[in-house]
Each structure stands twice: as C-alpha cells, then as structure tokens.
Amino acid sequence: MSGKRIFITGGASGLGKAIAFKYAGAGYRVCIGDRHRQRGEATAEALTASGAEAFFIECDVTRTEDLLAVKEALISRWQGVDLVINNAGIAGTAGPIDQVSVGDWQQVLDINLLGVVRGCQTFAPLFKQQGSGYFVNIASAAGLINAPQMSSYNVSKAGVIALSETLKHELAPFNIGISVVCPAFFQTNLAESMKSTIDGLPQRLSRLMARSAISAEDIADDIFTSAQTGSFWVLSHKAERRLWLLKRYLPAVFDWLMKKKVTKLFSPPKPDNSKTAATPPG
Questions:
Q1: Which domain holds residue 206?
Q2: What distances in angstroms separate CA 187 from CA 155, 158, 211, 258, one per listed residue?
C-alpha cells in the first residue's frame, strides 16, 4: 500500500469518481472535492467501504477560497498532498458563434479553464514547499481537434492544454510533474451539463458517449500509468489521436475527414416520409 495522498476536483461522479476508485485501489488516501454534496458524500462512503482512507469536502472550483480550504484540510489531516487532479468541468453551451452568449462563454471558461488555473495556483506553492508533487489536468480531444458549434468548450480545453504545456517546463525545476488528459467520447454524465441552441444535439452526443468502447475506468487506468511514468500526454482514444496527427502533418486530409464527421453529427435527422406521404388520388 502506497499511503500517498490524492485530491480530485469533480470527484463525486463520472471520470473523477473512476479516478478516485483507481487510486484508492492502489492504496492512496483519497480526498474528493465537488459542488454536489449528496453525490460527494455517497462516493466517499463507498470509497471508505472499499477499505480506502477517504473523505469528501464541498468545493466549487470557481471559488479560490474553497480550494484554499481544501489545501488547509489536506495539510491538517495528511501533512500535504502528492497528486492533484484538476478534473471538474462542464460541457458548456453548443451552438453557432453568434448564438452563444458571452455569459455562457464566461461560465464554461470560469469552470473548465480558470478552475484548473486556480487548482494549479493553489497547490503549486505546497508542492514547491514539499519538494515534489504532480498535477493531472483534464482537457479534451476537443482542445486538439476543434469541431464546430462547440467553440466555448473547445477554447476552454485548448487553454488547459496550453497551461499544462507551460507548467511542464515552468515547474520541472521544482520536481513537480504534470500530465494533460485529452479524451474523446466515453461513458460519462458530461451531457447532463450541456446546453444547446441546436435541437437534439445533447441527445446525439449522449448516444455517442453511450456507444463508446472506452469507459471512464479505462481513462482512469491511463491516467494512473501516465502519472507513474511521468508521461505528459494522455490520449486514450486511438481514432482521435490519429486525427490529431493528421491535423499536424496532413492538414488537407484532416479537413476532408472533419467535413464528413461534422456533416454527420450536426445534420438534422431526416424525416420519415413514409408516415407523412399524401394519399394518392383514386
């Protein structure tokens, strides 16, 4: 049993919960932070029942004071923390650039991007004081591939990637490591937080997530391995990893493939003409 210490934002459900159970199974002491108290307490109880040392603390990543309170709690209970997973996020609002309000942009950036910034700002001084630490920042393949109609989400996740690449070099002299995670569709509850100006899009995305062969547990396994080995990129989906490489090295081919995928995803469903056909005269 390792006895190491981990803190996970958005740890009450979805990928955060899968990460919590992965690390608990490896002997880590686990703290989960989340805005949803009922889910958080239930997850902490389940972790404890599995034999882990775990606790929940209510935490909203848009509030620096909440993250500072978590840090003080971790110092008080465990004298510090070894690994911070900046996982909390929302799907934001899908739609054309001229139909998504600045208010919706501000919400998704405040949680998805600035939530990660706040997590890194809060715990980097503690890691420096300890002489070690590791950040895992959850971004998305959307931050690499940038499909249309998802501009605010794409920008928020691209920002997490840029931040992580910056900190990779900035924090290395302090023995602080970092990984950035860029999953595509997988089985999670992210669509719960999606708003859309496009009829039926959240339902279509939910179906894509449900059909994915990749689970939250698979991605948690990849995160665990990357943190153990110090690998920066965590790219669990082979198809999206290939698309990213195409974008970099064969951009014309990438544009052609994206046009096909976008047409399929965003085209409205075809009406069933068999049910509305007019009765022929007779």
A1: 5-238
A2: 22, 22, 8, 22
Give tens-digit pLDDT for 23-81: 999 999 999 999 999 999 999 999 999 999 999 999 999 999 999 999 999 999 999 99
Nearest to 147 by CA among 207, 92, 110: 92
**What is the model's pTM?**
0.86
DSSP string of 72-94? HHHHHHHSS-SEEEE------EE
Phi, psi of 80 (to 5 degrees): 140, -165
Q: Which residues pair with 57 in a beta bridge?
A: 33
Residues noted as catalytic: 153
Domain presence at residue 263: no
Closest CA to 52 of 28, 83, 70: 28
216: domain CATH number? Answer: 3.40.50.720
Give 220-279 pLDDT, tens digit per residue: 999 999 999 999 999 988 888 888 888 889 899 888 888 877 666 666 555 555 444 444
The residue type at 237 = H
| Residue 70: both structure tokens together | 């978590």
DSSP helix/strand/coil, 55 = strand
